[in-house]
Amino acid sequence: MSVTIKDVAKKAGVGLGTVSRVLNNHPSVSEETRKKVLDAIKELDYNPNAIARSLKVKSTKSIGVMIPDISSAFYPDIVRGIEDIANEYKYNIILLNTDLKREKEKEALIMLKEKKADGILFISNTISEKLKRDFKKVNIPIVLIATKDDESEFYSVTIDNERAAYEATKYLIKLGHKRIAMIAGKKEDPNAGIPRINGYKRALEESGLKLDENIIFYGDYKFKSGYQNMLKVLKLKDKPTAIFSASDTMAVGAASCAMQHGFKVPDDFSIIGFDGVELAEYFYPPITTVKQPRYEMGAKGMEMLIKILQGEDVEREVQLDFELIERSSCKVKGES
Amino acid sequence: MSVTIKDVAKKAGVGLGTVSRVLNNHPSVSEETRKKVLDAIKELDYNPNAIARSLKVKSTKSIGVMIPDISSAFYPDIVRGIEDIANEYKYNIILLNTDLKREKEKEALIMLKEKKADGILFISNTISEKLKRDFKKVNIPIVLIATKDDESEFYSVTIDNERAAYEATKYLIKLGHKRIAMIAGKKEDPNAGIPRINGYKRALEESGLKLDENIIFYGDYKFKSGYQNMLKVLKLKDKPTAIFSASDTMAVGAASCAMQHGFKVPDDFSIIGFDGVELAEYFYPPITTVKQPRYEMGAKGMEMLIKILQGEDVEREVQLDFELIERSSCKVKGES
DNA sequence: TCACTCCTTGGAAACGTTTCCTTAAAAAAA
DNA sequence: TTTTTTTAAGGAAACGTTTCCAAGGAGTGA
């Protein structure tokens, strides 16, 4: 029913192979026949079938993108970066939300395997041992974004979380703050959790400030946990003057909580966030943050993947630069 | 190199068709042979090839999702809704950003055509005549989300923008506000622009309030245009006491501007937004808004598409309910 | 025992390409 | 002119499935 290469061949009075050749710009076809074929294609409104092509050439020009949750503010920019590059190279992306659930990750992987995705981009802050094992045996090139594995068995693009947290804390110290609380991520999170806590501790230590484990609070990066941890901060007798939050969303939660309880930001609390999401920028006061180059992380990951697919070799672990963006949520301690 | 159905057949000592039958749970295969085949599959670690299957059955189980920009806060939730339903029915989604550019829309459509997407979900607030024409001749089922065409030639899922704007304005009026400005969308936008302006006007009119075209400001739904339009509001001698914004992001921009200039929200200005994005919820003060059921719009659109693909008939134009969410950015006029 | 059904099964054909092998024709060389 | 080389073109085979048709065998009823 739909018009195929065969119909075109017949119409143009040439062979099958010839049509295929003009379709793929093979050199050895005379100008004359090329024209005939092109005319036939136009006339019949022929449309190539990428599925049939894929079956033969064993490449689908599709990339699987596994992500915890596209509706979580951190991810869309990454995906945009991925798609832009993919598009440039004529690849498509298949988007899969996993919610970090083992079951969904497994299903997603199976789907991608069956649909013969040429490669996979895995975006997350954690990667489980099981998934790593699955990844290793699936035999599809994979690049990790915003996470990496300790053994460096996978390609990855990340930022230096430890140093970023260090810089953020250092920034607060530079402003004169001596008692700095941290609203951290998850204790067991090897990317957004631990390294950021370590960076915070190192900055304190290096500046000769006392580390008080009681003012490190653990959250899940979301608004509510920022808000609730701030509640705890407000109950402290010896309140900190500054807060480093491991996510912008928690920072905003903390700021909201403070303001709702009659405190001022940055007058009573200087707050610095992490990630660089829109919310931090548009909040009032705008939240100082260390921005992860999300778009670039996606773009870079996709570029690496394409290179891998083309057989070029690429650096195994890429670290992109973060950026400390000064806004209005932090001020010099004591100044009014 | 990779193991196929043929290898399985050989190993199990059965015919090709038989393997295919157990793979597809056809009834007519004895328990005994089914077992043999299953064993062979396990032993060889056989993995079906969806590409080959698609070629034969003429269905890829892939849905194209065309969206202006996934990194714009309005869209991710919609996509999440889509993907959840898709996933449930074993479909995959191919995500394409179009930036509302004709060229990219065209390319995306061609890609989807070649890759034989079973259906398309088009998300936007506008759809151009040209694209409509392309859609009509492409012969792939299409559902529009968050937009519709005047002629009702396409399936669509939207909300009643006029009524939503009406309710929002009415809400402000009920609070006692008499002079209500609007920060509107684009004058030529047939979905998020015009109807919302009309709803605003109707509410005013119906309540006997004077319509002042000078306090309708036009923006592009983004923060900056909210901020800048608010600047104009602040210059007015006869300032409004309330503002209805056609997007949350503009509402937040307006609120930021007001607060930065020493005004208070909601004391000096009651502000109501539109969309129900996270930013409005987490802003301080939290912004009252009329929430579009974005997740549900995506989910519903996908459900409709699946039904269409299964040959069931479905309602042509579906309107989902919006919800006015009261938060802290609006208060009774005059009250302190 | 024979004729009929019904249930399983095997395998060829088809889906729409690309690629490789041939061959015909044209061009170049002798 | 004849031989050799080059170029253009045709078409079969293959990619990995599904589906359809034919057929063997077992069961059933008379």
Structure description:
2 copies of one chain form a homodimer. The first copy, chain A, is α/β, with parallel strands linked by helices. Chain A has 3 domains: 5-48, Orthogonal Bundle (434 Repressor (Amino-terminal Domain)), CATH 1.10.260; 62-159 and 294-321, Response regulator (Rossmann fold); 161-292, Rossmann fold, CATH 3.40.50. Helix content of chain A is 44%, strand content 16%. Chain A has 13 helices and 12 strands. In chain A, the strands form 2 sheets. The first copy, chain A, has a 6-stranded parallel sheet, sandwiched between helices. A 6-stranded mixed sheet of chain A has the order 7-6-8-9-10-12, sandwiched between helices. In chain A, helix 1 (5-12) packs across helix 2 (16-23). The longest helix of chain A is centred in the last third of the chain and has 16 residues, at 294-309. Chain A is elongated. Chain A starts with a helix and ends in an 11-residue tail after the last strand. Chains A and B meet through helix 4, helix 5, strand 2, helix 6 and helix 11 of A and helix 4, helix 5, strand 2, helix 6 and helix 11 of B. Strand 2 (92-97) of chain A pairs antiparallel with strand 2 (92-97) of chain B, so a sheet runs across the interface. Chain A binds a DNA duplex (30 and 30 nucleotides) through residues 2, 4-6, 9, 14-18, 20-21, 23-24, 28-30, 33, 48-58.
